[in-house]
Predict the structure.
Amino acid sequence: MMLSYLFFGISYAFAAGVQPGPLQTYFISQTLKNGWKKTVPAALAPVISDIPIVILVLFILRSFPDSFAYYLRLVGGFFLIYLAYKAFTSWRNYIANQELTKNSGKQTLYGAIAVNLLNPNPYLGWSLILGPLFLEGWKVAPVNGIALVSGFYLTLVLTMSGTIILFALTRKLGPKIIKILLGLSALVLLLFGIYQIWLGIEFLLKNYLVNH
């Protein structure tokens, strides 16, 4: 049971970590300006900036009945499929170095934290996917929730650090590898989206049969 939560946390973090977005754009631009050694510490930004987001989301979710988590799973499944579509579109239309044309922002860890706090993805991810799954696992055994969060943030930091180093060490090969990772992340998100929807439908069917 614990391993399934750990695996989900790792897989979802990988898929999220390679997606083009404000934070990844910030990392790449800062890497090209300041070098990877000064930029890698900024990969910790999601761990720091997500603390208030996690506390807020879990506080709200705990006020709802346990069955509400399954409805969120259903919605979260469609959200994952939407992310898979975006990842597939990014893979299909990927142009090397296209991210470098955007603004870089501040050159500090605080800048990366600010970028992530203004990014809607952490709020949606924790509200629709990670939050309900964490509470579900925690109620069965706290180690499940710990495995989910630990696997997610450790993998997210490593993935983002790897992206920073990749672009610093091999600019020509880097974009090609990123395109491959985008395609892989689209597949991972699609599979988990289908799985989440299946769990939500399964709960609704069982609930319907019990009440009729």
Residues 61 and 68 are 8 Å apart (CA to CA). DSSP finds nine helices and no strands in the chain. The first helix runs from residue 2 to 17. Residues 2-211 form one domain.
